[in-house]
Amino acid sequence: MNALMLLLIFAAFGLTMWAQFKVKGNFKKWSKEMAGSGMTGRDVARRILDENGLRDIPVEPVRGKLTDHYDPMSRVVRLSEPVYYENSIAAVSVAAHECGHAIQHKEAYGFLVLRHRMFPVSNFASGIAPLMLLGGLLMKMSGLLLLGIVLFAAAVAFQVVTLPVEFNASSRAKQILVKDGFINNMEERGVNKVLNAAALTYVASTLYAILELLHFVLLFLNDD
């Protein structure tokens, strides 16, 4: 059973690596395809926010690639420089996705609210859980191992809740881009490729985390 679990974990890890490669590849490919609207990621983000009553939320550039995010604490959309300044299909796709999170925040989207409430616990748990798990295994202390499992489960639950948040933001982005004419029918395929690849990374990493958690649970049960 443990051998099968380890095999599944390695397979999930491989899927995670492949998903990350896929998202980078799709972003690079569709960064070379310019959107017919001629609007940059910053332009698209600004217009989406304004049209959804979020004029007070700034759009700022941030260094790096694929570092785009919506900061709910500061209430700001931050776009990586290739997204902020360029008018590619990849840029408008990512910009619209991050605006989707801002709209979720405004509407108090249930899973986003839950995710925000879980964050402090998850942040603490993800930092200390590995130490507890390692200590419990090395010192053969079942109590310490169980505590590590509980903390790790909290971190995994956060990842699970993140999935509908990301899927919903991408769904909103696709609808807005088409409805408001930011992309044409020919460009819709590129948007789907970029956003679906990004979603796959969340699915793969969550699957990997769940299998890891199950593996630790089996180790704990077998130890008893």
A few lines on this structure:
Keywords: Membrane, Transmembrane, Transmembrane helix. It comes from Paludifilum halophilum. This protein has 224 residues and is mostly helical.
Set out the fold topology.
Elements: H1 2-31, H2 41-51, E1 59-62, E2 69-71, E3 76-80, H3 81-85, H4 89-107, H5 110-138, H6 142-179, H7 188-223
Parallel strand pairs: 1-3
Antiparallel strand pairs: 2-3
**Into how many domains do the coordinates divide?**
1
The topology string of helices and strands comes to HHEEEHHHHH
How do the strands of the widest beta sheet line up side by side?
1-3-2
Radius of gyration: 20 Å
Q: Major sheet, described briefly?
A: 3 strands, mixed
Number of distinct helices: 7
- From the N-terminal CA to the C-terminal CA, the straight-line distance is 16 Å
Gross geometry: elongated
Structural class of the helices, strands and pairings? mainly alpha
Mean pLDDT: 94
Strand content: 5-15%
Number of strands: 3
Low-confidence stretches: none
**Helical amount among residues, as a percent range?**
over 70%
How would you characterize this protein structure?
The chain is mostly helical. The protein has one domain. It is 75% helix and 5% strand. The protein is built from seven helices and three strands, in the order ααβββααααα. Strands 1-3-2 form a three-stranded mixed β-sheet. Strand 2 and strand 3 form a beta hairpin. Helix 1 packs antiparallel against helix 7. The chain is elongated and about 60 Å long. Keywords: Membrane, Transmembrane, Transmembrane helix. This is Peptidase.
